[in-house]
Write a structure and sequence with these properties.
Oligomer: heterodimer
Order of helices and strands of chain B: HHHHH
Radius of gyration of chain A: 21 Å
Number of strands of chain A: 0
Largest sheet of chain B: none
Radius of gyration of chain B: 16 Å
Number of helices of chain B: 5
Largest interface: A-B, 39 and 50 residues
Helix content of chain A: 55-70%
Structural class of chain B: mainly alpha
Number of helices of chain A: 15
Strand content of chain A: under 5%
Distance between the termini of chain A: 50 Å
Strand content of chain B: under 5%
Shape of chain B: globular
Shape of chain A: globular
Largest sheet of chain A: none
Order of helices and strands of chain A: HHHHHHHHHHHHHHH
Helix content of chain B: 40-55%
Chain lengths: 319, 114
């Protein structure tokens, strides 16, 4: 027993399910593909330019920050690519290059790396960047101004802005099938409601996205919009309009379900989703912004740690 | 999922050995020092309903007594499922066992001095 060599042994369990962040990022990129392709089809090469620049800049910023912070390279897990993707999908196709570069820098730095990297961020990184841009550069993010020089075959005024300013009569000519199939102006990845629903469903079925959050968000949006519509049908649009127009579906499946900023226990997930849904419609109907998705989700990201305290009692604990 | 790895080649089969698992190098998943991303897989899979995502944050930082008091470290039934599903390969089970060992050591030290 004296001359044996001791081996380095690992600890139980000696098996792993195989899931990784890289797999999740790949499937998120895949799921977003239908919506992005429709955006490129509707808006042309400028949309392709913004998407390519956004994803590559996000990856580049992550690489630079890894070097500056003297950390091991994390570009390989695909999280920066997903941040770039979601940020690009929220931008209008005519966003100038410096907005994309600045926005991805804010998303990757302020949204993710000042908190220590993956898992540390209390807010969704892409939403932090978009909120910064909405407040700082209103003209660039204004959808009516962004698509001024385009000639579409469908009504091309920003649907949410029209209904906020002029009431439901202004959006009577927006058919729901049109909104479903990508005939609305919006961010590059937010116009194709059907594609977003398919992508979101795919992610839920593969287990990468918590369906409780998406479902409660959609229910929150529908119920609140319905109540507002009942109270004043001339002023407030109906629930399906609010679901299909604007950033709602992108928010429901891709933005609100970001791991670090959303809760993990059942009741917190339902309250979080429903609360953000109600807040979205409140901001849209009586609040200061045309589209409430960005700020509603950010608000509930802040509420997330407190909500997550509502959890079941563990085995053997009596208090 | 539970059990021990061999630390020397002449280790014997004991009376309570149920099985021997032999793995190829490619089947072993290395653990990482990445922090928790809050995906919630561990919380969903835990049979003892422990908030593993919060527990691991305290264990990673060595705050074992707080983990035992506030985040149910001692409720763990040591099944290993949390580590199996962890998306960032945190060795949760190892941290839990380390925490339990530290708590036991602190308690026996307190009893010895009492």
């Amino acid at each position: 027993m004296l001359n044996q060599k001791l081996l380095v042994g690992s600890h139980a369990p000696y098996w792993h399910s195989g899931i990784s962040i890289r797999e999740k990022s790949t499937h998120t990129l895949l799921a977003a593909l239908p919506a992005v392709l429709m955006g490129i089809y509707q808006f042309g090469v400028p949309a392709l330019r913004v998407m390519a620049l956004s994803i590559s800049c996000a990856i580049l910023w992550e690489f630079i920050l890894n070097r500056v912070m003297k950390r091991p390279l994390t570009v390989g897990d695909g999280d920066a690519a997903v941040i770039g993707l979601l940020f690009g999908m929220l931008l209008p196709a005519t966003a100038p290059w410096w907005v994309v570069v600045l926005g991805t820098a804010v998303a990757v730095t302020v949204g993710k790396w000042i908190y220590g990297g993956l898992g540390g961020n209390p807010l969704n990184p892409a939403l932090v960047a978009i909120a910064t841009l909405i407040i700082s550069y209103k003209g660039i993010m204004d959808l009516d101004q962004a698509y001024l020089n385009y000639d579409f075959g469908f009504p091309a005024a920003d649907p949410l802005k029209a209904v906020k300013a002029l009431g439901t009569a202004a959006v009577a000519r927006y058919s729901l099938t049109g909104l479903l199939m990508g005939q609305q102006v919006g961010g590059i990845g937010t116009i194709f409601a059907l594609g977003l629903m398919i992508g979101g469903l795919y992610l839920i079925l593969r287990g990468f996205v918590r369906w409780e959050i998406s479902l409660s968000y959609i229910v929150g949006v529908l119920v609140t919009a319905y109540v507002f519509n009942l109270s004043n049908p001339e002023k407030y649009a109906g629930p399906w309009f609010h679901l299909l127009a604007g950033y709602t579906l992108l928010g429901a499946f891709f933005l609100i379900t970001e791991y670090s900023s959303s809760p993990v226990n059942l009741i917190p997930m339902l309250v979080y989703g429903a609360g953000a849904g109600v807040m979205t419609i409140l901001i849209r109907n009586v609040g200061g912004f045309t589209d409430g998705v960005v700020f509603a989700i950010l608000l509930f990201n802040v509420a997330n740690p407190l909500l997550d305290k509502i959890r079941p009692r563990a085995l053997g604990r009596s208090n | 999922m539970t059990g021990r790895s061999l630390l020397y080649e002449e280790a014997p089969v004991e009376f309570d050995t149920d099985a021997i698992l032999v793995q190829d190098k490619s089947q072993i998943v290395p653990s990482s020092d990445s922090p928790c991303v809050n995906c919630g897989e561990c919380v969903r899979v835990c049979p003892a309903k422990i908030p593993v995502n919060m527990l691991i944050r305290y264990l990673e930082n060595g705050r074992f007594e707080e983990a035992a008091q506030g985040y149910d470290l001692l409720s763990c039934i040591e099944c290993g499922l949390c580590t199996y599903v962890c998306i960032v390969d945190i060795p949760i089970f190892q941290y839990i066992m380390l925490g339990k060992q530290e708590i036991a050591r602190i308690q026996s030290a307190e009893e010895a001095h009492a």
